[in-house]
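TA notes, week 10

Several of you asked for a full example with nothing omitted. So below is the full record: structure tokens for the whole chain, then the designed sequence directly under it. When grading your own attempts, check the secondary structure regions first.
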């Protein structure tokens, strides 16, 4: 068994506008995905802290961009969930200006993790976010969440479906099955983060 990676983190700040993003030069790893997909839970699992990033049963709980500094020289960034009903009256705007400003323009951001619920087909908004990042030339990984809820064969099929979907994508880093319940994918994800952080330093 691979040896455990220890990492600890603490909350830096929450931002509701770009002017409030922290002035730090540390590389940033962001978690994005539909409301309730498990972004905050996965951050807590990575740092083995049950309540650092807020977790809730109410979709749309995380409304600001939350920055956490780790002791491994990078920041973890928890983004607001997208696709929360009636958030915006403007249907032309798929993602909030805040999310767009962050994922497309933030210089410190080295990889955006797009979280996709492993129980369902990737949703139109997931594909739209993937396309934004691909067209914007920004690196991203796809993390399948809540994999503890699937039978092994169903999980293999889901991972293959997603890999087939992104086969021609240039800026995709990897597809990683995860579970915040069992810790599945934690080691792989931390390894991926370490490689990218080292590349960018
Ligand atoms: N079984 C299982 N449940 C999970 C997992 N990850 C998250 N959940 C549950 O899913 C719900 C939503 O989790 P959150 O981590 O709050 O999701 P989020 O993406 O941060 O949600 P917003 O901040 O509202 O966008 C909670 O009830 C979690 O306990 C997982 O890996 N397995
Ligand atoms: Mg959250």
């Amino acid at each position: 068994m691979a040896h455990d990676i220890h990492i600890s983190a603490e909350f830096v700040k929450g931002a509701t506008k770009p002017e409030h993003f922290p002035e730090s030069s540390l590389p940033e790893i962001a978690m994005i995905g539909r409301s309730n997909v498990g972004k905050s839970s996965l951050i807590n699992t990575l740092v083995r802290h049950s309540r650092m990033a807020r977790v809730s049963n109410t979709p749309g709980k995380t409304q600001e961009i939350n920055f956490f500094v780790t002791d491994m020289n990078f920041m973890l960034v928890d983004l607001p969930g997208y696709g929360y009903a009636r958030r915006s009256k403007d249907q032309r705007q798929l993602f909030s200006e805040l999310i767009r400003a962050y994922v497309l323009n933030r210089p410190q951001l080295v990889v955006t993790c797009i979280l996709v619920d492993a129980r369902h087909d990737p949703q139109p908004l997931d594909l739209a976010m993937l396309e934004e990042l691909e067209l914007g030339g920004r690196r991203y990984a796809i993390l399948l969440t809540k994999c503890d809820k699937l039978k092994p064969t169903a999980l293999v099929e889901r991972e293959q479906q997603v890999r087939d979907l992104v086969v021609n994508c240039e800026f995709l880093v990897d597809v990683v099955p995860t579970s915040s319940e069992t810790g599945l994918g934690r080691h792989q994800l931390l390894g991926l983060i370490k490689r990218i952080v080292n590349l960018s330093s």
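Helices lie at 39-46, 97-105, 124-136, 152-165, 186-199. Use that as a sanity check on your answer.
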